[in-house]
C-alpha cells in the first residue's frame, strides 16, 4: 500500500507539467490589455468628439472664415474684436447676472427640498414629481412658459389679478423682469437634478452623528447647521460647479422665449455665439467667443477647486 501511495504521490506533480506558468508581469500585462479594451470606446469618443473639435476651435478662432470659402489667418484680431464688441460685453454681463440669479437660489432650494423629502412618507412619488421637469425638453418647457408669462392672457397674471388684485408685470417684454423670468424657469427645471444629488449626499451621512447630537440635546436646526450642511459640502461643491457651467451655457430659454430681447436684455454668451456664427456667418469671431467662454468656465472651475479646500469637509477627515 505504501508503494501505491508513493506512486500516486510521484505522479501527481506530472499533471501540472503541461500548464504554462503565469508570472506576475504576464498577469499585469493581461489586465492592462483588458483595461485598455474596455476604455477604448470612451477614449475614441473623447478624442473624436471632444479633443479634436477643441483643437480645431482654437485654430478657427485665429482665422477669418464664413463657413464656405477659404480661411485666412487673422491671429488674435478676432479676440480683440470680440472684447471691443458691445454686444459681446452685454452678453457677458447678462450671463453673469443670470448666474447670480440661478445658482445660489437653485442650490438652496434643492438642498431644502432634498432634506424635506429624505424621510417623508411617499417620498418616491414626491421625488418623481420634482424630477419630471428635468426629463422634459427645454424647448417644450420654454414654449409652455411663454404662454404662462404672457402679460395679456397668461395664467400667472390672470391669477395674480383675480386672487390678489395685482396687475402682473410684463414678464418677457420688460427689460428689468425678463432675465429674472428666465432664471425662474431655469431654477424650476434644474431643481430635480440637484435634489437627486443632494438626496444621494444625505444617504451617505451616517446616522450615528445625529444620534450623538440628539443625546447631547442638539435641536434640529443645530443638527442641520453642524452636521448636515458640513457633511453635504462635497455634494454642494459638485452641484455648484455643474450649476455654474450650466448657467454660463444658457441658450434654449433665451432663444425660444425672447430671441435675446427685449433690447438684448436676455442676450447671453451662447446666444451671441449662435448669432455671430449662423446669422452673420463670421465663424472666426464666433469661435473666438466660444474659446473665451471656455477659458471663463475653466478659470471659474479651477478657482472653485482651489477654494474648496477651505470649506469642503469629507466624512473620513
TrEMBL record:
Domain ABC transmembrane type-1 positions: 92-304
Cell membrane recorded as keyword: yes
Species this protein is from: Paenibacillus spongiae
Protein name: Sugar ABC transporter permease
PROSITE patterns: ABC_TM1
Family, as annotated: Belongs to the binding-protein-dependent transport system permease family.
Membrane spanning residue stretches: 32-60, 96-117, 129-149, 177-200, 229-251, 286-303
Organism superkingdom: Bacteria
Compartment(s): Cell membrane
Membrane topology, from the record: Multi-pass membrane protein
Amino acid at each position: 500500500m505504501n508503494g501505491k501511495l508513493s506512486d500516486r504521490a510521484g505522479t501527481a506533480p506530472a499533471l501540472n507539467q503541461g500548464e504554462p506558468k503565469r508570472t506576475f508581469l504576464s498577469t499585469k500585462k493581461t489586465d492592462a490589455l483588458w483595461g485598455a479594451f474596455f476604455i477604448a470606446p470612451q477614449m475614441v469618443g473623447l478624442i473624436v468628439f471632444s479633443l479634436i473639435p477643441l483643437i480645431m476651435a482654437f485654430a478657427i478662432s485665429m482665422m477669418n472664415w464664413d463657413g464656405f470659402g477659404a480661411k485666412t489667418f487673422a491671429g488674435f484680431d478676432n479676440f480683440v474684436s470680440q472684447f471691443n464688441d458691445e454686444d459681446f460685453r452685454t452678453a457677458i454681463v447678462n450671463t453673469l447676472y443670470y448666474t447670480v440669479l440661478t445658482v445660489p437660489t437653485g442650490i438652496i432650494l434643492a438642498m431644502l427640498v432634498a432634506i424635506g423629502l429624505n424621510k417623508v412618507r411617499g417620498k418616491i412619488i414626491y421625488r418623481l414629481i420634482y424630477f419630471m421637469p428635468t426629463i422634459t425638453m427645454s424647448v417644450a418647457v420654454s414654449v409652455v412658459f411663454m404662454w404662462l408669462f404672457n402679460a395679456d392672457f397668461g395664467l400667472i397674471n390672470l391669477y395674480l389679478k383675480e386672487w390678489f388684485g395685482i396687475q402682473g408685470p410684463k414678464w418677457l417684454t420688460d427689460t428689468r423682469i425678463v432675465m429674472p423670468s428666465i432664471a425662474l424657469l431655469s431654477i424650476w427645471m434644474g431643481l430635480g437634478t440637484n435634489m437627486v444629488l443632494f438626496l444621494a449626499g444625505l444617504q451617505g451621512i451616517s446616522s450615528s452623528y445625529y444620534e450623538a447630537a440628539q443625546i447631547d440635546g442638539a435641536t434640529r436646526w443645530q443638527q442641520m447647521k453642524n452636521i448636515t450642511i458640513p457633511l453635504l459640502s462635497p455634494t454642494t461643491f459638485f452641484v455648484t460647479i455643474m450649476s455654474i457651467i450650466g448657467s454660463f451655457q444658457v441658450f434654449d430659454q433665451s432663444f425660444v422665449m425672447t430671441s435675446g430681447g427685449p433690447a438684448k436684455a436676455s442676450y447671453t454668451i451662447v446666444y451671441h455665439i449662435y448669432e455671430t456664427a449662423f446669422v452673420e456667418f463670421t465663424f472666426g469671431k464666433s469661435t473666438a467667443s466660444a474659446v473665451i467662454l471656455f477659458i471663463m468656465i475653466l478659470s471659474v472651475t479651477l478657482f472653485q477647486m482651489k477654494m474648496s479646500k477651505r470649506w469642503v469637509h469629507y466624512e473620513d477627515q
